[in-house]
Amino acid sequence: MSDISRDTMLLTTPFHSRVEAMCDLNDWGNWMGYTTPNAYFDVELEYFAVRSTTGVFDLSPMNKYRVTGPDAQRYLDRLITRDVSKIGINRVGYAIWCDDNGQIMDDGTIFRLGEQDYRICSYQRADDWLAWNKLGFDVTIDNESEAVAGLAVQGPTSCTVLTLLGCTDLNQLKPFGIAHYTFEGQPLMVSRTGFTGDLGYEVWVPPETAEALWDQLFELGRDYLIKPIGSYALELARIEAGFLQANVDFMPAEEVVRVGRTRSPFELGLGWLVDFSKPLFNGRSALLKEQANGSRYRFAMLDVEGNKPAEHSFILKGDKQVGTVTSAAWCPTAKANIAYAQIEMPHGAVGDELVAEIYYQRELHWTRLLAPCKVIDAPIFKSPKRWQTPAPPH
Fold first, then answer.
1. Exposed, middle or buried: residue 268 (CB in 10 Å: 0-12, 13-18, 19+)?
2. Residue from 393, 349, 392 nearest 374 by CA
């Protein structure tokens, strides 16, 4: 059981003693009930660790559910929109799941650990929802969130550092693959996954070996300029790489109280994760209807003129407001001002020219800026190292 901080009453992760010792800025946030660092020493330098060397992020607050039993695959196929049978053993698949109205409840990753053995990693807690959906299936669901500690080890030198740790032949692991090792006499699982769009891995261990893992990683990675990173640096990296974030780019359907605030997979550009060849899954009928009749919104990635991030901006077409920005950042490696927006149909097609109505404050003075922007078809930042196998040595 995780300790409870007397000052914040938030849970702490198995890495907290090491995280706290390195958090020079003492800048903390709340991630799903856990106290986690927003920044350790400098947001931009932490970001550049991911892009130039190795950045380490504590993933432990992720919700982790083990799904086993004779009907595990059938259960997950009923639960999520993609075809689970296409996820091989020791492979990871990105997935979304919807309510009966075809509105996204959450996204996450599905780890296939055996023939009928899976782990769901999700941002939102889903104990009740997973239990309700198991009716009629011979399946066991265990919340193992506190039984598994995790670190994201991301960046060009991440493979080298983990190889020094004892992860032999890790450079041969393909994207979304899983490898198994032993550390301190306990199992250590490495997946070639991450939220940065660069070469990177996620490392999963029992909590009792968490501190030793942190210590050895930072000792072995010292010559490779390994650094811890907080949520602000990760946010920069994920926007640059084109990844969506729950409660930022979409509201989980189970949490909203206002009609029309949720989004479907098609409205978030995730239609490629919907497999209608499956006979039944949550939201299938509603999504078929939407596919036939059209969506309300379109997800758009915008290249915004200038260097003022379009956070919380309105998007205009002429004099008409047609959308709102959900995520925005000036992305240092891509050297681009990127924004994600929800655009009312039929606007927002690739190539569409729009205007971001940006407000920013400098020295107590607010300025209104109308910045031209253009809908682009893919993230500007694309690291070849993310897909390269063998992973490049550094």
1. buried
2. 349
Q: H-helix or E-strand containing 212? A: helix 210-220
Q: For the chain, 394 residues long, give each residue's pLDDT as a single digit of tens.
A: 445 444 547 899 999 999 999 999 999 999 989 999 999 999 999 999 999 999 999 999 999 999 999 999 999 999 999 999 999 999 999 999 999 999 999 999 999 999 999 999 998 899 999 999 999 999 999 999 999 999 999 999 999 999 999 999 999 999 999 999 999 999 999 999 999 999 999 999 999 999 999 999 999 999 999 999 999 999 999 999 999 999 999 999 989 999 889 999 999 999 999 999 998 999 999 999 999 999 999 999 999 999 999 999 999 999 999 999 999 999 999 899 999 999 999 999 999 999 999 999 999 999 999 999 999 999 989 999 999 999 988 7
CATH topology of domain 16-60+148-229: Gyrase A; domain 2 (3.30.1360)
Q: What is the DSSP letter of 87?
A: S
Domain 296-376 sits in CATH 1.10.3720.10: no
